[in-house]
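lol so apparently i was supposed to do this last week
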Amino acid sequence: MCGIIGYVGEKPAAPILIDSLKKLEYRGYDSAGICILNDSLKTYKTTGKIADLESILPEGIEGTIGIGHTRWATHGKPNTINSHPHLSGDVAVVHNGIIENYLRLKEKLIGDGYTFKSDTDTEVIAHLLHSHLYGGSDSQSKKCDLMTAVQKTLPSLEGSYAIAVLCGSEPGLMVVARKDSPLVIGIGNGEIFAASDVTAFLKHTKDVVFVDDNEVASIRGGSVEFFDADGNPVTKETTKIEWDIEAAEKAGYEHFMLKEIHEQASSVHDTFAGKISEMEGTIILDELNMSDEQIRHMTRIEIIACGTSWNAGLVGKYLFEQLAGIHTDVDTGSEFRYGYPVVCGEVLTIAITQSGETADTLAAVRGARSYGCQAIAITNVVGSTITREIDSVLYTRAGPEIGVAATKSFTTQLITLYLLALKFARIRGKISAEDSKNLLVALKKIPADIQKILNKKAVIQECARQFADAEDYFFIGRHLNYPIALEGALKLKEISYIHAEGYAAGELKHGPLALLTDKTPVVAIATKGHTYDKMLSNIKEVKARDAIVIAVANKDDTEIEKYVDVVLRIPETHDLLSPILSSVVLQLLAYYTALERGCSIDKPRNLAKSVTVE
Ligand code: M6R
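anyway here it is w/ 5-amino-5-deoxy-1-O-phosphono-D-mannitol bound
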């Protein structure tokens, strides 16, 4: 997730862009840059935060039109060269999104004589625009105007984008476009803004126009014109934003947690985008520094993580064992670091940490590496400590997570584990191309499935309201759903302060059944799969003790209704993928329960987002 801003007006653009970028910093903050169009393009970029960019700007930059970007690296390291704006001749572009076919486009452009300076996907957009404008890398004579060049470029881009473009030979003009990444226009008095969200310009204007997918806008002076994908003019409505700045940062949601739950449809998509070849049933993980030979000879996987990330690791265990046939252990960082691990053979350590800064996880991984283990990290934060101490880094593309309760970081960790397990399974010959393809087809549907759950969240809210006074809650599941039960309980307890426990459903009879009363809600994750019948038996055991059963079940499951009090539905999906959808349901259950109880949802008592102490 990155943030873009564009300004066309009468005031000096640089300070306005810097101020706007500070508002967008929550979307990413590993590097930043601006480009101002006066007589020519002047570009300033640096690694670090917006304050670092501000500190390198000369006094009194002239020019009243400019674009800016704050970056959260997806392709290429967070360094100055990879930071935006990207230039090709006198064309400058900032981009939020992911160009999935950039490698193919890059090869073609290199063949056409273009030289790439960065490792980013965005640079292909700059060169494509230039090639349409000038007909080639060496040419100086214009073949079309900037608007036409943008319209010719967009159809070749696969993936998502919100872009703002300037051209040195067309002063006063900015062109913007979007597909699957947010873009909003602010209409000021004699000035126009274009940004990833309204917070960027809210202090200048509350009149906005939301750009829709496949639309392009041309901004000049104090006016803006919109066009559809075929170049036909489009009339758009202006909306008055009623939010104050604080509400706007949460995109109008009451809490960051709810906003982040909603972002999962896109963060999950971003995490697998460009990494799967559905046709061949294969996974492309260029960041993985492991040869096929090493993957074939691996004897064991050791997953190290804490909290929610540890729960994701438990899902990983089932996946690596079931799909790839690799024995997998999962340890919490705090236990592993003081244990006596048996590290022999070809052991791969996988550290899972949203922040990349959790002290226990870091210490445990250092320990594992001291035994000579190959180690990879699954993390969300580019440049975090773990990324500097590890052989390979697989980034989740969740974007910054502000709420203490992990939500979108969890589901994107799960996606990364599915990709890794499938890759290992294919290389080790444990899954056929056909089965792999089927799984990938279902995986591509997951963002839409998540959206369906979000669209019906009122049912979950009503359930949360009904049982918000409970003193204890239990969560049960089997196999892949067991870690989801643990995660459901963790979410509920940390933000609603209700005592909640997660169990492997078969374990209830070994003790916890004694705690059940007719006031205890038991959430049973009973999605379709090979343990479904066993789950039904466990549900009957619970009902026989008069407890309340809330089932998480598949959309078409009519059987389950006979045995439970409430059913929360997930869309039909591949059995192996249902944990991702069930987690979204449980996040909403926890959120609405905490809301009903008036808790401090984004900052629960006694907790911190990143635990950097032992
Ligand atoms: O940044 P990490 O993933 O290493 O953090 C580990 C835990 O502190 C974290 O997952 C915690 O359990 C969640 N914030 C709970 O929602």
